[in-house]
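Standup notes
- HV: blocked on the assembly model, inputs below
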Amino acid sequence: MKIKFWLNHVEIEDEINPDTPLLEYLRGKNCYSVKRGCETANCGLCTVLVEDRPVLSCGTLAVRVDGRHVVTMEGLQEKAKEFGEFLADEGAEQCGFCSPGFIMNVLAMEKELRNPTEEEIKEYLAGNLCRCTGYMGQLRAIRLFLEHKQNLIRGGEAS
Amino acid sequence: MKAVNAPIRKKDAMGLVTGKPVYTDDIAPKDCLIVKILRSPHAHAILRHIHTDTARKIPGIICVLTHEDVPKLRFTMAGQTFPEPSPYDRYILEQRVRFVGDAVAIVAGETPEAVDRALKVIQVDYEVLEPVLDFRAAKDNKILVHPEKDWKALCEVGADNKRNLCASGVNQSGDVEKVLSECVYRVEETYHTKANQQAMMETFRTYTYLDAFGRLTAVSSTQIPFHVRRILANALGVPKSQVRVIKPRIGGGFGAKQTAVSEVYPALVTMMTGRPAEIVFSREESQTASSPRHEMEVRVRLGADKNGIIKAIDLYTLSNTGAFGEHGPTTVGLSGHKSIPLYGKTESYRFCYDVVYTHVMSAGAYRGYGATQGIFALESAVNELAVKMGMDPVALRQLNMIEEGQVMPAYYDGVNTSCHLSQCMIRAKEMIGWEEKYPYKDMGNGKVRSVGVAMAMQGSGISGVDTGAVSLKVNDDGFYSLMVGATDMGTGCDTILAQMAADCLECDVDDIVVYGVDTDTSPYDSGSYASSTTYITGMAVVKTCEKLKARILAEGAKILGCREDLVKFDGKKVFRLDNKKSVSLKDIGNQSMCANDNALFATESHFSPVSPPPFMVGMAEVEVDQETGKVEMIDYVAVVDCGTVINPNLARIQTEGGIVQGIGMALYEDIIYDEKGKNFNNSFMQYKIPSRLDVGTVRVEFESSYEPSGPFGAKSIGEIVINTPSPAIAAAVYQATKVNIRELPITAEKLYKGMKENAN
């Protein structure tokens, strides 16, 4: 069937099978940052933004994004890099396979939560599994990143 | 030193965090055939007939391969140095299936839809046989897992397929029975660790094609490219010269990918069809037909004198290798050899083991490699001894722990050349606030907080076996290329090897380009396992840099028109000591590309006759609900002696990650089979690895000794870090509940039952 949507800000019209998951569809469109870690919506690796909200692309049929805006990490390179620098400075990307999905959710959290507590951060990101890092380095990176963003805001207000 | 011991960013970090397509499936050619496996629903059966006609007729299906299509050559998928201790006990496909999930047929087609349809319509006539599922009953059972005549053990490991034995053996020193009989305090208990999945985020995957020369090329998510070359050659019956293996970026391994779990299937398809082919294991396949930790039951007998000096340790380990023997003979050894030496005052030890075949999925290598299982048992027994003696378990360990300079009889009589274990203990105790928190504190709301302790060791490479080599060359403008055969699987070895090279060559890490791994061009390395890369390959880097520096000096002296002993190299230039005239490395690099007969290239190999152990102490603080038995992690502190820390950030992440994996093993992770051998834990829905809500806080520090045989004084870090959580958490849980959990994982049900029994 036909769908029309925006992928990383570019309008796309396509003929698709109604049973194609968004994850496979996006990888077919060269969005290789989108990873599959499980088949049961447990790992968070396939997180993308639909209308600015994080969704699991493994559990979303591609037809569901008809008329919507989908953003993968390919469309968020600058922001990914901005947070990614903090993650890299902790060595907390490690194998990196879960990094795109995790970072997409971190960026969504940054938009959604104001001054989140540690518990709120952990809750928000609970669906993003990582087997390498033990999560502590990710949390350190998030704290430093949020501090950095706060400083940018304060700097902006001051000037 | 500038780069070594600096928290330098991983060379591939920015590529990874911006989601670049660098993993196997991202770079696979679009025209790869899709390869999937039809798997057995029975734990033990003979395939009487496989009806493939309907499947073959499905449009898009290119081939359906069965046991009739594969070479009758026994091989092992274990990634080990030849001759492998693991027996040659499998074909790619066989008429006998040995576990639920064993491969029955290989289907390759143009689309996943066609392949899925084909898998559904293949009909198999199984002659279902009774399986051996209880590993305690496997040895000398009348049902044999490997009755075949061409089963073969290459090494003397005490294997006997007619007894379901994959390995067996005895090691001892002194008269353990006599010493035990003289001990005032004795603990005799049996501890049971379960099979666990490595659960790396990237499942097993490989694609294969024939290159321009018609050679089979496998691009694979593997820790062992050179071993995969041999394994494919063995399995397919082709010369090794006709196989090339390339490792791209890897999404985690933890030992899982030290077994060639996925490679043979697309390789066979490519050999049969000439076409590129790819297999990507589903999570379900990764959970049910892979290479998990060996389930082990360890009987510990421990004796101490009236003062608490541990005089004798007697261990018997029964290990379950499952349907095939991958890593069976070797993992079991570590359960004794890397636990017993922790205690330096023993007069006698004995370590016996049996490794048995059963009809469950084959075990493999998993971080810790048997040491994890042995340390859970021995450290739990020592904690029980402390309780028996009414002694603080920290004090008991301080009385008995191995010290620097001691000989370790259970560690092949090796000398403990570097050891800050006692400093680790002191620091861990401070960090967690042991004095205030031990043994427990009633929180007044039905919950109790308590602490527990454990020590651990591992090795640094396999002594006298593991081999690492690197090649290094000077390019134009004077930048370096470092070619490695070691496999960075996310751990950062490409970066830390460059850090070492940068200090040797007095340059910046960014001046060194790292390339690995391609078996056609990389120097030989056994692979990244056995905690070997930093220690073994790191030393190869040091040696290679020395050799290259000599060549740079020779070239500089030639350009400056003087003898080699009259020049020095400072990383940027070669200069004359007499008149200070110099030539820059940049000019040397450029000039070496014109009319040159001195290749600015060096390669050196390294192995070590010893495997110096890293040491660590872990302490857990838990909160236990006395009503329900629910355990919550509050805090975990770890102090590690891995020798010189090459990259503090990466070493810290290794430690935190290993501890959290260890927490998973201690509290959550279990592979459960039903009475017919079906695996219940076939997804992340049923196999729960810790999320960030399940682990509390993990805090890590280093107490570095200096290992004289290691590069810059380094030992290893990768594996040891998973060894302390299970015994430390079990001990903490005991303090809160007075229930000893001797079978992992420590679940609320087991605790609840134990508390009920105590109350009655």
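- HV (later): unblocked. Chain A has two domains: 2-74, 77-158. Residues 77-158 of chain A form a domain with the DNA polymerase; domain 1 fold (CATH 1.10.150.120).
- Next: hand off to the docking folks.
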